Amino acid sequence: MSDPERPPAPPADGAVEPGRSGPLIFERHRKADGRLLILYRAAREDAAAER
Amino acid sequence: MGELRFNDLRGEHVDYAIHRQERTFLPPADHCPLCPTGPGGEETEIPFASFEIAVFDNRFPAFEAPLGAAEVVVYTDRHDGSFATLAPTRARELMWVWRQRYIELGERADIDYVLIFENRGVEVGVTLHHPHGQIYGLPFLPPVPAAEALADERLGGCAPCELLRRELRDGRRVVYANAETVVYVPYAARWPYEAHAVLRAHRASLAECSPAELAALADSLQALTRGYDVLFERPFPYVMVMHQAPTGGEGHGAGHLHVEFYPPLRTADKLKYIAGCEQGAGTFIVDALPEDTARALREAIARAG
To answer: Which of A8, A18, A35, B192 would give a disulfide with B57, using CB separation of 3.0 to 4.6 Å?
Structure first.
């Protein structure tokens, strides 16, 4: 490991951080116990129709 | 918090995560922690009424910050099915999820290797049937990618590139191919139906792949897993592992993206065990030739369509 003294920065408590990965939009949530939860969904508006 | 020890005799790390002894074990479908949370129902790991793909920190992590990570990737909010039965669109989207997690976890200073994998079937220790995989962020370079780096040295270049050239020249063990990827049973497979899905172009990781390559990889993985299920006309257990470049430390950035499948079945109802010679000598004894299992698998993939 390169630097164990530098842990990752979690998102701020209660914040929902949006992001993008290719055709996906994602949102980061913080669960009640502090664990990270990321929800991904297709960016296309017709995504639901395609499924 | 677990404890990481180094086994000096083997030259490898062993992770003690004793809290995992208490993890959820094969709950009934109506208590699945990976399903969405129904109205008025008990809150699951995903407190939303529906979702497409979800990733969350494992409640029973084998690794966790500041020395690694353990995440669960839920492929769909539908409890039944498998990676093979996902809509092709969803399988392609999953490649982008894996890519995003590889990049983000790989940027962490405490993670040297991002291991994306799926265990399917009780035969390989699955404790939840809902379609899902896992990601470990390991705070060291584990033995398997270290051995692949040695293979690069032994073969005088990228080993997966050279092995792919050999498989394409021979052709007998290729079970599926598309424009960007090739799937084959390796010449010296350790499991009867082991298969590797390999990018034709040299790509160290998902991060280097084009959208077309990610789509082709999803197509190959689904073709293979559908073929597996047709092979013995039963859900086919496997361990699926994505091999990519280490993200830190020794060997950082060097590798060739490929996905290896280690299925434990040798017939429809018989398992291959890791027994004396495999554990004691590190030498696998296999009951079937790769050329024969590749032929059967190729036909099964064709039948699966």
So the answer is: A35
